[in-house]
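Exam revision sheet. Question 4 asks you to relate a sequence to its structure. Input first:
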Amino acid sequence: MPVSAQSVIRRVVETLQDKTSIRWPVSELVRYLNDGQREIVLYRPDSMVTSATVDLDPLNSKQSIPNNGSKLIDVIRNTDGTKRAIRLTTRQILDAQSPEWHSLVNTNDEIHHYMFDPRDPKTFYVYPPAGNNSSVELVYSTYPTDVQEPVDGALYTAVTGNISVPDIYGNILQDYILYRAYTKDSEYAGNGARAQAHYAAFSAALGIEIKSTIAVSPTTAATPVAPSA
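Answer key, structure tokens:
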């Protein structure tokens, strides 16, 4: 069941003991919530993973993930014809064996390999270059959708919509918002330590969650951290 943004903000307001939202306006807390969602996706791209059929840029080896994507995770298969699986390889191999491979013509639209550099997370290369009708199944991380900020002076009851990260991250978001809230008042005794404690809890929960995910996931030892080339 989706977690409402209002329920997250309510718990934060109760923890801050600021039910009139004077010191920490609700609109400000919602901005922290949106920042927290983006930070979760920064550290855990798999938290907003999606799979989609994507038409490739014709006659081009260089490709990009959709506009709503933040990072490529995998290229699974061709979606037409024999639906051939697409394997990960390294660009250095093709560059050494066939330096002109970027200009090859794909006569049947089928992709055999893809290449990816984590330093350019929205881009990948395909071999052979895409044909006029090449399409593939991509797995990639998407950006979270921001929760709309209520008007100035509103109470937490004015917050609408759900968080866009999975509901298991609801408690983690609370720690991030509290970290930002206490950082704002870090000049007061104890608030600096409270801020750091909440960020430590936020970071630790993300690390614990990925360990438990890997422990129970139906994958080989090589995935999901380092797929075999």
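Marking note for examiners. The two ends are 37 Å apart (CA to CA).
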